[in-house]
Amino acid sequence: MPKPPTIAIVDDDEGVRASLASLVRSLGYQARTYGSGPEFLRDGVSEQPACMISDVQMPAMTGDRLQEVLLSAGVRFPIIFMTAFPTEDVRRKVLANGAYRFLTKPSDGDTLIRCIEDALAEPA
Fold this sequence. Notes:
Layout: E1 6-10, H1 14-26, E2 30-34, H2 37-43, E3 51-55, H3 63-72, E4 79-83, H4 88-96, E5 101-104, H5 109-121
C-alpha cells in the first residue's frame, strides 16, 4: 500500500499548527509541523512534502522568504499561504513565485480541504 502524501505545516502559532495537522490527518494524509521557516529548513528536504501550508507573518522568517529560499535551492512543491494580515504586494509576490493559493485567516475547513486536494491532484 502506498504511503499517504505528507503535508508540511509551517506556522508560529501552535494552535493553528495543531488544528491544521488534525485536519490534514483526518483526510488521510501525514502531517509534519514546524514553528518557523528555519525549523522546516533544518529538518531538511530529503523527504520533500507533497504540499505545504505556510503562514506569511512569522518572526524568524516570513513565509514569502521561505518560498524564496526553497525556490533558490530548486525545491518546488505546492504552497498554500495563509495570513491574518493580507497585503496585495505579498499576495502578488507569492503567486508570481508559484504559490498554489493565498488565503486569509481564518479560512474555513472546506476551503482548506479543497485547496489541499486540488494541490495534490496537480501533475508534478
